[in-house]
């Protein structure tokens, strides 16, 4: 668990982060959103002390982060930035092995770990291990960036606009992959973005920042239904909030027993997608199918509409 | 995203009163030099080795205290002040005091009517000059003056130096003694130096511009042309001067009219030809590079508006490439001013005459009479052309 | 024959020619004989060409090694946070320094250290500093911010970051600076012979003094050939070392 206590950062007269306190649960994904200049990146960078706080402190599992030298702390925390920051003079395998080498792992363990991560990130080791970053596509570079951050099995992963440089289709895939990785390794993730859709899609909890202050820190649904102030409401998009709310629930979660003659949707689809399907086909209900394609229940228009209200 | 990405490079904000590192370093070096090295060297004649004299031993008490106070002021400002204007003021005050002190030393140590005795600036003077010069340079760098201000600063410096030289402030220093003996020759060689540097540059630009345009238009030619010019650059100047003497001498013998025009095996002609050859590469390379950087869209738009090829070249491409071409010309000019020095070895004249004569006679003062104006010329050329390039780039942006 | 093979062949031929001339100069006497008058010797006979060439190269390399150590060290210093306040000044100094003609530096060094190798070494050292220093600074400062951030982010200490990331990425530019300064200095070192340094300038000056063009040409060609080969060899080394570094 990470405890942020009264964290502040001033550059000269300008206050970039202003007295922020929050608790981040273990094994969760926390997304920090805000406009540019809101202080969200600085907040993230104070957690691994790339920026030293002017006031307040950060505790990881109850231990003050200032208890050890900053570079040793950072070896235990994964860090991914926009544009990946891969070392252009090192191969993919060497890039991934960076932190394990800093930690003096033995060669066999490093090799095994690199191989495992390449497999997990769908990069065929025979092809990609010895490749240089400039030989990879943007999406592959981004995956190597995440793999490098996870190499030393950190319990905490910090991500600063990790998908900002990707096109929409690759970005959606990268977001799905991140959710899978989080399930697989149980890593605690703190991610900074300015993309509201990304925040709702990935976040167990979302922190909204503006002008250095933390305005609201809640699960996504609460952000939509009980915005703490007009800025949060504007940021979450009043015109779209009903649709956003629907996208937080899957068809499987909302389905009721019964069958339907209408179109079929998979249980993993969101209610937003189910509603879209209903409108498109002019049907009154959809059939919900599980992963094996067996009927699992149904969803009616009324049921969906009820979910879109606060 | 919002925080400065290069955070590790931002120097720690230091609003507290903290001594300036450069100021402390330079003050320490200056103090060591002042007490450890001679301020001036007294020589019974121009060839004899000098006897060291310290500042305190030479100047009367009032003068020494005055100079010391000015130097102390410069040091205090350098260590404590943050304001760049104040720092520049302190450094200039120190420089003026230093100049007056060395001039006064010359006056005091030279017996009236004696033309044999030489008083040369010593190690302490040169080190202090370097320290104060660095302080002034640092202050000017911090002020970030625009191109016009830089040219004005340089002009101001020349006016002050010119007036004090005309007034005879430094007349009793050894370099000026050498000048007094050689004054007529000095101006002749200076003029010749400038002519050799500028003339070969002018001729080179006339040839290099079309050649650069050709390299840009016909990329196939580029490696060959640039490679050849590159090889020419590696031939040492002294050898190229020498090698060119033979064909030019043959030319002069074969065609008397060429000799009448001043083409001789020995003298300025081989130097001019060699400098011309050295000048080609930077101008050709920068012309081709500058044209290559002109945006394709601008050229296409110009064609689209119905400009002829010649109009596109002159009004769009060359105009946009001008700053890069001028940068090449700056490189050539500064390089030429230095290389003309070597021409003296083959009878080409120029300020190098004094340098090599001085080396031959082990007369340091004569070396300086040649070397100081050479450095001043090269520096002036660099400042003027840098300012020109910057003005051109600014009007474009 | 492909272009690359042709270049390699040319390189070997040039090297062979240089070595052959330095080892057995008399064999080339017929080539230079037409340039001499009144029965003057066609090949430099006042000293061993090979030892002069080696002394020349030694002076240049010693000066270059010294300039590299100092320039790279200073370049690293002014790009660290602690030395950042010296950065603007040092860049200005580099620009000013480039306007000092090497001959002037050489001449001014003589009264300080006397005749011989020393003033040449000082002039070459001072003149060689500038391209290396400039390129070191540019190389270190153009390492992409994201890469620096990532290096700190993964927990490298400042020293580790410098050694493992910044210097390797700046290496191509640093090597280019060393190459430039070496080539300039091979030519400039000939002037050192005017202050009695041992080197190929001796041959050229002997030719100028005795009006023997064969000497001038020999000295000039050997120096130029050495410069070209050195340039070429270093460019090859650079490509080999830096094949992998590509920053877009």
Task: State the separation between the terminal residues of chain B, measured CA to CA.
Answer: 27 Å
Helix content of chain C: over 70%
Query: What's the overall average pLDDT of chain C, rounded?
Result: 84
Radius of gyration of chain B: 26 Å
Strand content of chain B: under 5%
Main sheet: strands, sense, barrel of chain C: none
Oligomer: heterotrimer
**Shape estimate of chain B:** flat
**Helix-strand sequence of chain B:** HEEHHHEHHHHHHHHHHH
CATH topology of chain C: MetI-like fold
Order of helices and strands of chain C: HHHHHHHHHH
Structural category of chain C is mainly alpha
Which term fits the overall shape of chain C? flat
CATH fold-level name of the largest domain in chain B: MetI-like fold
Structurally, the number of domains of chain C stands at: 1
Within CATH, the superfamily of chain C carries the name: MetI-like
CATH class of the largest domain in chain B: Mainly Alpha
List how many beta strands of chain B DSSP finds: 3
Could you name the CATH homologous superfamily of the largest domain in chain B? MetI-like
As residue ranges, the low-confidence spans of chain C are none
